[in-house]
Design brief:
The longest helix is centred in the middle third of the chain and has 16 residues, at about 105-120. The chain has helices at about 1-10, 25-30, 55-70, 85-90, 105-120, 145-150, 155-165; strands at about 15-20, 45-50. The chain has seven helices and two strands; from the N terminus they run αβαβααααα.
Length: about 180
């Protein structure tokens, strides 16, 4: 990715590229995260431009056009780089933030996709996206209550142990899951 950015923006105009991939390591870092990264597949890439660089808007236009072609299936969006726009966004990763809430999760998602399609046709709206991914992995546990009871366990014991195992803090109680494949 960095090579593509340096191909689009001349190297003498880019003193620094900072990329943070995945989730922050602590809750403190997570609370100060302004870009809306949600999972291990998300990344923030901050490009610092040197004084006297060419028009930022032209670089953004080229990045929006060329990166999705070079990396199909990935989603790219550009956050405001100036402090005034960031403050006017109230710390949100986009100047327009539409939140959809309801009991029908699939219906909410379909409504959001339809709305995003309509919004993307409005001139001036750039980088429309649905912030919350719907294809995250999940763990479904089915308990045979008879066998669990024979082992001296009940649903509460099992739920409590699964909760403890899945919600450990990396700083106080790290849990590592190994993929043996």
């Amino acid at each position: 990715m960095e090579q593509e950015i340096r191909r689009i923006i001349p190297a003498n105009e880019v003193p620094t590229i900072l990329d943070n991939i995945g989730l922050p390591l602590s809750g403190t870092n997570m609370s100060h995260n302004m870009s809306g990264t949600l999972g291990v597949a998300d990344a923030d890439i901050q490009v610092v431009l040197d004084h006297g660089h060419a028009q930022t808007a032209e670089y953004v236009r080229r990045l929006r056009a060329e990166l999705p072609e070079k990396f199909p299936g990935l989603m790219f969006y550009v956050l405001p780089s100036d402090i005034v726009s960031q403050i006017l966004n109230f710390g949100l990763p986009a100047p327009i933030d539409i939140q959809i809430a309801g009991r029908n999760i699939e219906g909410n998602r379909a409504f959001a996709i339809d709305m995003m399609g309509k919004l993307s046709r409005i001139p001036g709206i750039a980088d429309p996206r649905i912030q919350q991914p719907a294809d995250q992995p999940k763990l479904q546990i089915t308990v045979d209550r008879t066998r669990a009871q024979q082992a001296g366990l009940n649903q509460i014991d099992i739920a409590r142990n699964v909760l403890i195992m899945l919600s450990g803090s990396f700083q106080t109680s790290p849990t590592f899951w190994l993929n043996e494949v």
